[in-house]
Amino acid sequence: MIHSLFLINASGDIFLEKHWKSVVSRSVCDYFFEAQERASEPENVPPVIPTPHHYLISVLRHRIYFVAVIQSEVPPLFVIEFLHRVVDTFQDYFGVCTEAAIKDNVVVVYELLEEMLDNGFPLATESNILKELIKPPTILRTMVNTITGSTNVGEQLPTGQLSVVPWRRTGVKYTNNEAYFDVVEEIDAIIDKSGSTITAEIQGVIDACVKLTGMPDLTLSFMNPRLLDDVSFHPCVRFKRWEAERILSFIPPDGNFRLLSYHVSSQNLVAIPVYVKHNITFREGSSQGRFDLTLGPKQTMGKVVESVLVSSQLPRGVLNVNLNPSQGTYTFDPVTKLLSWDVGKINPQKLPSLKGTMSLQAGASKPDENPTFNIQFKIQQMAISGLKVNRLDMYGEKYKPFKGIKYMTKAGKFQVRT
Amino acid sequence: MTTMQKLLQLPVNAVNIVKTVQSQVQGQEEAKSPVLTPDSGQQTWYNALPDELRHLRSPSGTGGGGGGDQEERATLEEGGGGGGGSFQTQPLRHDDLKEMLDSNKDSLKLEAMKRIVAMIARGKNASDLFPAVVKNVACKNIEVKKLVYVYLVRYAEEQQDLALLSISTFQRGLKDPNQLIRASALRVLSSIRVTIIVPIMMLAIKEAASDMSPYVRKTAAHAIPKLYSLDPEQKDQLIEVIEKLLADKTTLVAGSVVMAFEEVCPERIDLIHKNYRKLCNLLIDVEEWGQVVIINMLTRYARTQFLNPNINESLLEEGGGGEKTFYASDEDEDEDEEKEKKAEAVTMAKRKPYVMDPDHRLLLRNTKPLLQSRNAAVVMAVAQLYFHLAPKAEIGVIAKALVRLLRSHSEVQYVVLQNVATMTIKRRGMFEPYLKSFYIRSTDPTQIKILKLEVLTNLANETNISTILREFQTYIKSMDKDFVAATIQAIGRCATNIGEVRDTCLNGLVQLLSNRDELVVAESVVVIKKLLQMQPEKHSDIIKHMAKLTDNIQVPMARASILWLIGEYCEHVPKIAPDVLRKMAKSFTNEEDIVKLQIINLAAKLYLTNSKQTKLLTQYVLNLAKYDQNYDIRDRARFIRQLIVPTEKSGALSKYAKKLFLALKPAPVLESPFKDRDHFQLGSLSHLLNAKAGGYQELPDWPEAAPDPSVRNVEVPEWTKCSSREKRKEKKVEKPFYSDSEGESGPTESADSESDSGSGSESGSGSEDSRSGSESDESKEASESEEEEEEEEEDLKKKKKKKNEEKQLKKPVQESESEQSSEEEVRKPERKSKQNKSESESESDEDEESESESSESESEDSEDSEAELKKKKKVAPPKPAFKAAKKENKKEKKEMSLLDLDDFEPAPSPQVTPVNTFLSNSLVTDLEGLSLSDAALMPATIAPSSALKSYELLHRITGEGLSVEYCFSRQPFSPDANMVAVQMHFTNNSTSDTKSLHMEDVKLQSGMRVKEFPEIELLPAGETATAVMGIDFCDSTQAANFQLCTHTRKFFVSIQPPVGELMRPFFMTENEFKKEQGQLMGMNEITEKLTLDVKCRNEHTIVQKVTTAANLSRVPCGSDKECSTPPPPPPPKHPIYRFAGRTVTSSSLVLVTVATKDEGAAQLTVNCEKMVIGTMLVKDILLALTQ
C-alpha cells in the first residue's frame, strides 16, 4: 500500500520523509514539483500523479502537501482518506498542523506514523488508541520529561485495540462527568443575480466532547429525526438501532469526536438567513466602476447574524477600489484582486453597506464577468434546519453526568452570484 | 562496561562493536571475550559477519562462543591489513551521538535517538551510526527501544549483516508472555528486509498465526506480505498461513488477512469460499481500512461466483413478457434461446424463484449500512460494489452517499467525481435527483469544476437541459478561462446529444463569437464547427447567420474562423459566399493577418467551386496579397495562385487542387472521456488514471453459469448443485420426451426396432440432450449425420405435419410404447448429469454412436424435437394447445406406470411438477384473456381492453413468484368519483398458494387518498386474479406507495400515474370548446410545434394516439369548415382535432388541440388551468405523436 510519505511545504521543500518499505528516493517528488508548476493554483495540483515507477497521491492541508508514494493498485480514496486522518491526528496532537509544529515534534510525528501504518497498511488510526500509545506533548509533560527523563511513550500498552470497544480506552476517570454536544449546521447555497436561490443545502454535524468515567452507554434522541436525510456515523454508533428507532445509541470515545454528520435534503426548503443587495457596474469606456453592496438579515428567527465576512475576487481589470463601509473594515489586495469585508454583526435597524468606486485600467474594456461574493456568517443558538435534540440518557454507570447541548448555524459554501 | 567505553574512543571498529552488541544481546559473560581487546585491529564488519552468522544460527552449539572466537580472530587478522585504510576515512561527525548512545543514562540515549530520528526524518544519512544504535535494541526504556526500531527498519536493508545482530532480541520478544510485546517483536522482525532471515520470519509468522491473541495474529497477517515481497518463493507456505488466518473468526484479523491475501495470492479465489459468509457477516465490525480491502475483494469474488442480476432479469422478462432486450436484437435466435434456457436453468436451480443467489443477496445486504460510514474510502468501496454487483433497481441507493462525499476535502471530491462521471454514463437516472449538487462554485479548484461539468453534461437530458444551460451561461462568465473553455465544450456536447436544444446552443455559441476573450472565441468556433460538421443539412442557416456576423464581429480570430467555415461549406451557401468574399476583398487591407490568410483561403475555395462568379474577385484578392507587408501572406498568395490558376507552367499539383482544398474533413466525435472507463473496477487507481496500474486485478466478467454455490456452505449443504442440475435436466428432457413417444408411435416404426431403439436411442438421445443444454438447436441439426437425414427425410416431413394433430389422439392407444419411453425418460436425466460434465466427450461419443448404431428412432427423436422446438419458437398461438397436450400426457403416463410397476423406476413426479408449472406459467399468462381467467375474475373487475397499457407493479422475480401488473382502466371508479380506477392483475407463478393478498401501509403525499382493493383470500398456484383499487392522485403525478402483503411476505410497490390518466373524458361541442379555450389563454396555454411521424398523419392515428396518451374524448366537428363533412366534399386540407377532458380530482378542464399543417407539420395546443398538468401533457402527447 503506502510506500513512503513526503511532507512538502509551500516553498517546495521536503521537510519530512518516512518510509514504510524500502526507501524511495526523494527525487520521486520531482514529478510532483512539475505538476505543481503546471498548476496555476496550489489546490489545482492533481491528487494523483503517475510516474514511471510509482504513483504519487497527495493532499493539501494547511499549506502542506502530504505526498504518499505508492507502487501498485490501491483505491486512491483509501490513501487520501488516510492522509487526511494523519493530518487530523497531527492537529489533535499539536493543536495546529504547521511545518513548525511538525518539525518541533518530529519524534512524536515519527512515532505516530510508525503506529498508524504497518508495512503501508493502516494499523491504529483511532485517536483514543494512539493517545494511549503515544502521549500528546504538553508543556507540563515536556518539562517533567526533561527533568525526570521519562518519556512520551505510554508505559502501558494500549488495551483499547484489544477490547470490544476499540475506540474507547478503559479505566477512564473524571471528577466532573460531562458530555457536551454541539450541533453545527452549515448552509451551502448558490444565490443567483436576482436573489433567488439556485441551490441550498444544509450540512450538519454533531461534535461531541464526552468526559465520562467508566463505560457509559449513551442514547441521544431527536425531536424530529425525519429531517435527517443522509447521515454518516462515527463507528461507535449502533446502526441497527438508528435504522429501527432513529435513536443514536453508542458507547462514546473518550474526549472530542464527531458523532454524526448529516445532510438535510435539498427537497426541504432551506431558510436563507441573509440577503445581499448589490449593484456593481462597469461603464463602457470609463475607467470607473460603481460598487454598492448591502447586506440584510432574512429568516433568522430572531437571532443575530454575526461574524459576517464578505469576500470576493474582483475582475482582473480592477486596479484599485475606493470604498466606504458603513460598518466594519475592508481590505483589497491589488495583486490578487481579493476584496474582503469584515462586517461583524448585522443590525437589522441599520443595514451594513459598502459603497464606492472601483478604478479600472485606463483604456481597458469593461470586464465581462461580475464578481461572486462568498459570505461567511454565524448564528448562535439556532440550527437552521430546526433539528432539536430531545434527550440524552446514560446507561451503564451510576453517576449523574452534566449534559450540555449547543446549536449553531454557519455559512458553508455560501455564494452570491452577481 | 569500561571496556566498551574504551573501545568506543577508538576509531570505529565494527567488529568489536558487533561483538559487544552480541554479548549484550545474549547477556553472557562474553564481555570479557578476548576479541574485545584493542589489538584486534581495524576491520570491516563485512569480513566478520560470516562468523557472526554462525553464532546466530547455532548459539547453543558454540557453547558461549568460545570455539567461534578462535576462528573469528583468525579471519579478523587476515582481513585486517587490507581493509583498514578505507575505513579511516569514515566521517566522524556523529561522535557525540555515539557517545550519548553508549552512555548508561537512558535520558542521554533517548536524546541521541531523538536527534537521529530527526535526521532520518529530514532525509539525512545516519547510516554510519548503525552499530552504535543497534546495540540499544535491547534497551529497557520503551521509547529508546521504539526509536531504535524506527532506525532499524529504516537502515536494516542497507546494513543487512549488522542488522542480524538485533534478531535474537526479537526472537526472545516473540516468546514474551505479553501479547503486545510478541506483536511488536514480530512487527519489527518482519519489517527488517534482510533476506537471510527469511526462514526465521517464516517460522515466526507461522507461530504467530496460531497465537492465542488475535492482536498477534493480526500482526502475523501484516507480516505475510512483507515476507512475500522479500522472498516470493515462500508463496506456497504463506498461502497456507493465509488460509489458516482466513478461517479466523475475529474482526481484528479479517481486514489484515484479506489484505495479505490480495497482495500474495489474489488469484486463489477458492480460499474465500468457505469464509465468504463469515466475512460478509463480520464486515460491519471490521475496522474501516479492513472494510475497504474486504469489500473490494468480495466484489471480485462475487463477479466470479454469481450470475449477473441484470442479465437474468432482462432475459426472464423476455421469456415472460416478450420484451426484447438489446442482446436479442443483434444476436441470432439460437443464442437467444440458449440464454433463455440458461436463465431458466438458473431459476430452476433454486427451490424458490429467487433471481439471486442468497449469498449474493447477503453481500449486498451487509454492505449497504456501510454507505453510512464516515470514511470516504469505505463509502466508495460499497458504491463500486453496488455498481458492479447489484441489480439495476437497487443501485440508486449509492447516489446519496456519493453526493455526500462531495462535501469532503477537494481530493476526495476529485476522486468521487471521477467515479460519478463514469457512473452517470451508464446510469444517468441515479444521479438526476442530485443534479444541483454538481453545480459549480467559483471557489472550486479548476479540476473539480471540470469534473463537475462533465457530470452535468452526462446528466443532461430533455427535461433538465434548460436548467443546465442556464447554469452553463453563468459559467461562461467565469474568470477561470480554462473552465470557460470546458463549459463551451460541454455545451457542444449537450447540443449533439439533445436534438431539441441544438439550435439554442448553436445560437448561444454564435453569440459567444463576439466575446472579447480569444480563448472563448476559439473554443466556440471549434465547437460550432464540430456541430456544423455533424448535421450538414442545417449548415446553410447557421453559416448564413455567421456570414452576417462578419460585419459586426471584430475579434480577428472569430472573423478568421467564420471565413474558414464559409469556405468549407461554400456549396451550402452558394449565394452568400461570393458576397462575403466581395466584402472581405474590400476591407482586405485593413484586416489582421490571420483574417487575410483566411480570405485568401476562402477565395481559393470559391474559385474552385464557383469560378464564374469569383474569378475576378480571387484575382483581385491574390493581387492585393501579393503586395502585402507580411511575407506569410505573400507566400500563401503565390502558392495558391500556382495551385488553382491553370497556366501552362503549372505542375501536376494543380490537377489536385480541388482535392487539396475541398477534401472532406472528418466530423469530430464529441463524447465523454469517461465513456469506457467502467471496465476498470470503480474506485480503483486504474480507473482514476484510465490505465492499468501495477497489481491491478481485473474485474472478471460474470460467469455464464453460476459455479457451484455449495462451496460456500460451511455446514451440511442445504441444497446442492447436483440437485439443481438434475432439475435443470428434467426440464430439458421434455423435448425428447414427447418426441420420443411420438417417434415410436410414428408410422415408420417397425416392430423389432423397439428393443433396439431402447439401447440405441437411450445413449444417443442422452448425449443429444446433454448438448442441447449448452448448444443451440441449429448446431445440433447441423451435426446430425447426413445419412440419417437422407433416410428419414421423407418420414420426417410427414411426421412434422401430422405431429400436432396426432399428438392427443395417439397417446391413449400406445400404452406399452409410452411406458417404455417414460422409463427412458427417467433414466436419461441420470445419464445426462454424468455426461454433462464431460461435454466434449459426449459429443464425440454421440458421433460414433450415430454412425454405428443409427437407429431410426434416435434420429427421429432428435429431428422431431427440433421441429417441435422450431414450431414453438415461430408459431406462438399453437403453444397453449401444445402444452395442454403435454400435461395430459404426463398424467396419463403416471397412471400407466402404476399399472406396470416393474418398469417404472421411482418417477421424479414431485420434481416434474414444478417443472411443469414453470412452463405453464407463461402459458397461463398467455391464456389470461381466454376462458381460464374468467373463473378467477372478481365481480368488480372491468374487462381489460387491449388498448390499455399495463404497467408492472411487481415482477415475478422480486415477488417470489407473485407478479402483479396494473393498468388504468379509464372507467369511473364507482365508490368515489374523484379517484382513478386502477385495475390490478395478480398472477401467482409460484408453486405454492398465496393467501390473504391485501395492501397495507399506504404512504401518500398529502391530499392523496386510496381505496384499497378487497382482500384476495386465496390465490392458488398458477392462478390469476384481478382487483380494482381507486387512487385519488390529487391531480399530481406523485406516486402512491404502499405495501402489497401476502400471508408470508410484504412487497413495497408504488403506482405512478402517467399524466394522461389523471383526467376523464368530457363531452363538449366545438363551440363550447372554443369558448372555454378562450378563457384559458396566456399562462394556461401551452403550444408546441411538432412534425408528425410519417405513420400518423391520418385522422385515425392522430385521434388514436392522443386518446391513448391521455384519457380524453374527441370533440366532434361542428359546422366548421375544417371538419370532415360527409362524403362528397374531400376532407379539409388541414384538419384540426380537438379533445377535451376534466381532471379527475379538481375537474379542471383540459383542452387539447392538434392543428395539422403542410407536410406533417402540426401545432399542439393544450389549455389547462393546471399548468403543471398542461406542460406534462404536452410532453406526453408530443411524444405519442412524433414517435
TrEMBL record, chain A:
MHD domain location: 176-417
Pfam families registered for this protein in UniProt: Adap_comp_sub (PF00928), Clat_adaptor_s (PF01217)
Keywords noted in UniProt: Cytoplasmic vesicle, Golgi apparatus, Membrane, Protein transport, Transport
Keyword Membrane applies: yes
Subcellular location as annotated: Golgi apparatus; Cytoplasmic vesicle membrane
Topology versus the membrane: Peripheral membrane protein
Keyword Protein transport: yes
InterPro entries assigned: Adaptor_comp_med_subunit (IPR050431), AP2_Mu_C_sf (IPR036168), AP_mu_sigma_su (IPR022775), Clathrin_mu (IPR001392), Clathrin_mu_CS (IPR018240), Longin-like_dom_sf (IPR011012), MHD (IPR028565)
Protein name: AP-3 complex subunit mu-2
